[in-house]
Automatic annotation (TrEMBL):
Domain of life assignment: Bacteria
One GO-annotated biological process of the protein: DNA transposition
Positions of the Transposase IS116/IS110/IS902 C-terminal domain: 212-289
Gene source species: Pseudosulfitobacter pseudonitzschiae
A GO molecular function held by the record: DNA binding
Domain spans labelled Transposase IS110-like N-terminal: 7-147
Protein name (Swiss-Prot/TrEMBL): Transposase IS116/IS110/IS902 family protein
Record NCBIfam families: transpos_IS110 (NF033542)
Length: 340
């Protein structure tokens, strides 16, 4: 058998497709393997590069395959698609993964540790509960609006609805009162779980040196700091802060051709949870600057004087992402430019 240089693995739930190729790209084997047999197959192959798409369960397999001595490379699926030849099937996908991983200019995803993934799970679980809480509040407001009970949006106005359904003189049907109380109890239960997860994340941020440094940046609190450390790849992956901001989707799209540069809206690619948190943090800084008055000689004051508020918010989020990359790379605290 010819020497295998790279193995492409098309991940699945139970049946995986494995494609082996030489250093010059010639195929050596292509076979289907059951989940329980994958590691034993790779253990029998001399040390080489094993490539796969960065998708569900890929970090788990990356850690396990790395223990066998292989070099693991994970590729964003969007970068694999151009290498698929004609028909879409598992064999062609595995071959395309091996072909893409052999490109010298390909961009790879770093395999995450189990601890880093655990932090990311806590953040995503909290985000899921927040969405469920919002959905339940909107459902309650919608149902009670059908009976003439209207309250503004937001958690702070729930007591108005609670008082209305608890009023002994209410004309609401008994079934409506029971179902509304059920939704209110569900909202309270979700709020308790959200608070518990938030407390865990804040405690983790206080113990993490990188998160503590990130929290020195205006607009970045413990939740965003933990998200930056848990969801972003190794800072050394990026050459400069602009590359990190581009990874978060906070840089403009380009539609340039023929020497004419055309810049569009932000790309919104990459990690959307991180992008959302950065924009929320930037919005709080902008809101505070408008209320208290921003320094007209500073960057934020000049931007607010001549640009729309939302544009300034996204631009500030971009600036925060670059600053966060610099702090994670240099292991330093934030230094206010106005005081430097």
């Amino acid at each position: 058998m010819e020497k295998i240089s790279i193995v492409g693995v098309d991940l699945a739930k139970n049946i995986f497709q494995v494609h082996g190729a030489t250093a010059d790209g010639r195929p050596v084997f292509s076979k289907k393997v059951r989940r329980s047999k994958l590691l034993s197959l790779l253990a029998g192959i001399p040390t080489c590069t094993v490539a796969m798409e960065a998708c569900a369960s890929s970090h788990h397999w990356g850690r396990e395959i790395g223990k066998l001595g292989h070099t693991v490379k994970m590729i964003p699926p969007i970068y694999v698609k151009p290498y698929v030849k004609r028909q879409k099937n598992d064999a062609n996908d595995a071959e395309a993964i091996a072909e893409a991983a052999s490109r010298p200019t390909m961009r790879f995803v770093t395999v995450k540790s189990a601890e880093k993934q655990a932090s990311g799970m806590a953040l995503r679980t909290r985000d899921l509960l927040v969405r469920q809480k919002t959905q339940t509040i909107n459902a309650l407001r919608g149902h009670l609006a059908e009976y003439g009970l209207v309250a503004p949006s937001g958690t702070v106005h729930l007591n108005r609805l609670q008082a209305a359904i608890s009023d002994p003189e209410t004309e609401l049907p008994a079934a409506v009162i029971d179902h509304a109380q059920l939704l209110l109890d569900h909202i309270e239960m979700l709020a308790c779980k959200i608070d518990k997860l938030g407390a865990e994340l804040r405690a983790g941020a206080r113990q993490d040196p990188a998160a503590k440094r990130l929290m020195t940046i205006p607009g970045i609190g413990p939740i965003t700091a933990m998200a930056l450390t848990a969801l972003s790849p190794d800072p050394s992956t990026f050459r400069k802060g602009r590359d990190f901001a581009a990874w978060t989707g906070l840089t403009p799209k380009q539609f340039s051709s023929g020497g004419k540069e055309r810049i569009g809206p932000t790309s919104k690619m990459g990690q959307r949870d991180l992008r959302r948190l950065l924009i929320i943090g930037a919005a709080s800084v902008v809101r505070w600057a408008i209320r208290r008055g921003a320094d007209q000689g500073g960057w934020l004051g000049q931007m607010l004087a001549r640009k729309p508020r939302m544009l300034v918010t996204v631009a500030l989020a971009n600036k925060m992402a670059r600053t966060a990359w610099a702090l994670m790379t240099k292991n330093e605290n934030y230094k206010n430019p106005a005081l430097a």
